[in-house]
């Protein structure tokens, strides 16, 4: 288990309790006290929790917490049904002959799978989606250039120009607030900002959990977003926030999109 995985587990443990001792974390993680203390120092420095005598304490109020980005393989298995419904609704907004950009991430992967046999031109930076479409798809596929970053499973290099222009850019977000779309991984922020300049409309695919997650880096302001598709767990408060920003809101549910 590497440092980032351990630190993420500590932060997630503190979502259910106000305090964890060094001894408890040793037993939970199977590492030495010295390793636990180093992890606590890193989490404290990142603002994810507070170092206290004998252990680590949760921050006062969930809104002050700073989330760590989950690896793609972990995030893929969370909220699977809402993600599938969101992707289904998003797929209805793609017309035959469209050129679209589908960003990395698990909800966008579902969308890409649904577009696999469509008459569309699709650009992606997602290695899992590229692998799927290369094996099973019939759509025209263009891949981002650069290096593979294994944790988010994204291909990116700042030196590689993006020579693809689309009617829509579909992307997810680690967290959403009045300040915009947020990501913990700086690489995802840079990639999103660059891709957003190559599309006429930005469409965000985000299940309602994302409105309670507070990631460190702002990727795009809400003013750049044209449409957001989410599930029926969205609160009235967050719906009003999106509408005030001029965003078209679509709700995906088992009964169809609203």
Automatic annotation (TrEMBL):
Q: Which InterPro entries match?
A: ArsR-like_HTH, Carb_Metab_HTH_regulators, DeoR-like_C, DeoR_HTH, NagB/RpiA_transferase-like, Tscrpt_reg_HTH_DeoR_CS, WH-like_DNA-bd_sf, WH_DNA-bd_sf
Question: What would be one Pfam family of this protein?
Answer: HTH_DeoR
What taxonomic ancestry is recorded?
A: Bacteria, Pseudomonadati, Pseudomonadota, Alphaproteobacteria, Hyphomicrobiales
- CDD domains, alphabetized: HTH_ARSR
Protein known as: DeoR family ulaG and ulaABCDEF operon transcriptional repressor
User: Where does the record place the HTH deoR-type domain?
Assistant: 3-58
Gene3D superfamilies noted in UniProt:
Winged helix-like DNA-binding domain superfamily/Winged helix DNA-binding domain
Is the keyword Transcription regulation in the record?
yes
Sorted UniProt keywords: DNA-binding, Transcription, Transcription regulation
Annotated source species? Aminobacter niigataensis
């Amino acid at each position: 288990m590497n440092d980032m995985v351990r630190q993420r587990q500590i932060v997630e443990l503190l979502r259910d309790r106000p305090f964890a001792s060094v001894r408890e974390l040793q037993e939970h993680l199977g590492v030495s006290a010295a390793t636990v203390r180093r992890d606590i120092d890193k989490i404290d420095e990142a603002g994810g929790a507070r170092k206290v005598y004998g252990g680590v304490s949760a921050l006062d109020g969930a809104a002050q917490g700073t989330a760590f980005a989950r690896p793609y393989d972990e995030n893929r298995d969370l909220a699977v049904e809402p993600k599938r419904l969101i992707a289904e609704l998003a797929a209805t907004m793609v017309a035959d002959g469209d050129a679209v950009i589908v960003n990395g991430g698990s909800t966008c992967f579902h969308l890409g799978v649904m577009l696999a046999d469509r008459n569309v031109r699709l650009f992606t930076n997602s290695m899992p989606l590229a692998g799927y479409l290369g094996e099973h798809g019939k759509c025209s596929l263009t891949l981002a250039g650069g290096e593979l970053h294994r944790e988010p499973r994204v291909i990116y290099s700042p030196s590689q120009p993006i020579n693809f222009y689309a009617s829509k850019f579909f992307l997810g977000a680690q967290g959403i607030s009045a300040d915009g779309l947020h990501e913990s991984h700086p690489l995802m922020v840079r990639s999103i900002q660059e891709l957003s300049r190559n599309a006429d409309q930005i469409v965000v695919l985000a299940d309602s959990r994302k409105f309670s997650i507070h990631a460190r880096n702002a990727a795009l302001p809400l003013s750049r977003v044209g449409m957001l598709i989410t599930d029926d767990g969205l609160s009235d408060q967050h719906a009003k926030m999106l509408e005030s920003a001029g965003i078209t809101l679509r709700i995906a549910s088992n009964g169809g999109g609203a």
